[in-house]
Amino acid sequence: LEFRRVLFRSLFDTSLTIGDEILQQVLGRGKDQKMHSIVATIQQDQNRIIRHDQGRLLIVHGAAGSGKTSAALQRIAYLLYKYRDRIDADQIVLFSPNSLFSRYVSNVLPELGEENMHQVTFQEYLDHRLGDSFAVEDAYDQLEFVLGGQGEPFYAERLSAIGHKASEAFIQSVLAYRSTLDTDGMTFKDIIFRGEPVVTAGEIRERFYTTALDLKFSNRLEALQEWILKKLKEVTRRERRKPWVQDAMEMLSEHAYHNARTHLALRKGYEREEVGDYEVEPDQLARLIVQQKMKPVRTYVREFGFIDFVAIYKGLFDTLVQTHWKGIGALTAKAIDDGRLYHEDATPFLFLKELILGFQINSSVRHLVIDEAQDYSPFQFEFLKRMFPAARMTILGDFNQAIFSHASGQADFRMLTGLYGEGETDTISLKRSYRSTKPIIEFTRTLIPDGEAIIPFDRSGETPSLDRVSNRAGLHQAVRSKVDHYRESGHESIAIICKTARESAEAFSALSDLGDVTLLTKGTLEHDQGVVIVPAYLSKGIEFDAVIIYDASEDCYGTGDVRRLFYTACTRAMHELQVYTMGEPSPFMKNAITEGLIRIGDAER
């Protein structure tokens, strides 16, 4: 027998809070390229998330850096292990805020010994479903407009549209509108063959509203589809004898004729080697030519292309009687007529289309995880519930980081209890933040209302710094100096966080001489360690050793609609936070300055 001595450095009970000493050691390390599994840092609340096993909906509302995402990913690993005979990775879908974040967490499950789940962004799904018909605006282009579009035509109307179209009231309006289509309001398109209507929109509408009225709505549409396909067969028979068919037969190349003869012979039961003996009758060839010409028309009908969803959606706004909807409807119609679909219209448009045709459901998915859920509208949650009827849902969010306009008036996820009912819904709140040092958290929690509820983890560090500069040249010189200092201090990931993509691009152009600096955009899939310049809204969910806030002036972050965006940017810092301002600092820092929670300096001194 062989005996070995084992040295235990510490013991802990995983059902209780784990010792601060272990946690301090792990969190004090530099930021790795990707988020890694840190089993030793699981706290009691995270453990509740991981092992939660009741109800259809688990809501995790947690402060920035509270471990929401880490716990959720370990929850997936736990489910895959516990129910390994009933569920696999292909049956779990993670909705990420953006592609960059998807790559950021892509190695976590493999590190935990499990296969990776499917990862997708909601925008990718919208593009997949609607991208062939429209130029679909994404959430970030919408946000760029909101943050920097003041002075643009119809700016106020657009802001109003964004809020109203994301509301629960609009969901009810769409549902009510769909019910009225049973008896009136469906709009159709002519069926065109060789430039001429062969079945008119009027004929289709007449047929729909006079026959098969006892069937369900979706079944009525299927019956209508079959009627149109029968009409196309009649068209095919008539067209065979028209001069254009004779012309087409005479102009067939030898290769095309051989293919036609092969096709007809095989259909008649000839063997391939007997094709040369088959005599093609002119009527058969004519029928084949017309059928092939008609094929895209039949496909169009089978895909319900004859339903004018655009006209139907625009018609929705004519039914809304409140005054504000008139301007919103006109703005919506103009964009759609230009081939564009605003982000706030994409989900309602697809939702109405699915209500008409019947939802394309996925019953194989057993669990959805939705990160940065505070940025989803009630419309999007309702859509996901209907699309994945067999799935349980875990949503993770922090309304203090709700940066999109439609969420500006909300403080929690209370509106989601109606998704599955209170009996099927549980909420876990995480108030302790582990990402940042205690001085950074004490500063950032003053930036938001009720921030005192956030509990900082007791990890020491430098007090955040606020430096005022007089102009852009001074700002860039100060940033260069600070980046050099952070590099010399051994920080491997440094973020220069700007307000918008436009400001980020300008900063990148001015600071490209730093070397090893990367501009992160909405199309960036991953980034290496080093210096990155990034708009605040793309930094969500990611953390950096050191963060530089590019310009925290009152001009940049002076209104309530960007308060949460400013908080989000500042909470990305793990170890050090430097804030610069050109002119008066953001009023959101007033309390921190008064209480001495941020060190005041002069970068140009």
Which band does the percent of strand residues land in?
Answer: 5-15%
Structural class comes to: alpha/beta
Shape: elongated
- Return residue spans where pLDDT drops below 50 for at least 5 consecutive residues: 8-41
Name the average pLDDT: 87
What does this structure look like?
This protein is an alpha/beta fold and 605 residues long. Helices cover 43% and strands 14% of the residues. It is built from 24 helices and 19 strands. The strands form 5 sheets. The protein has a 7-stranded parallel beta sheet. Strands 3-2-8-9-1-10 form a 6-stranded parallel beta sheet. Helix 8 crosses helix 16, helix 8 packs across helix 17 (343-357) and helix 15 (309-318) runs antiparallel to helix 16. The longest helix has 23 residues, at 217-239. Residues 8-41 have low confidence and may be disordered.
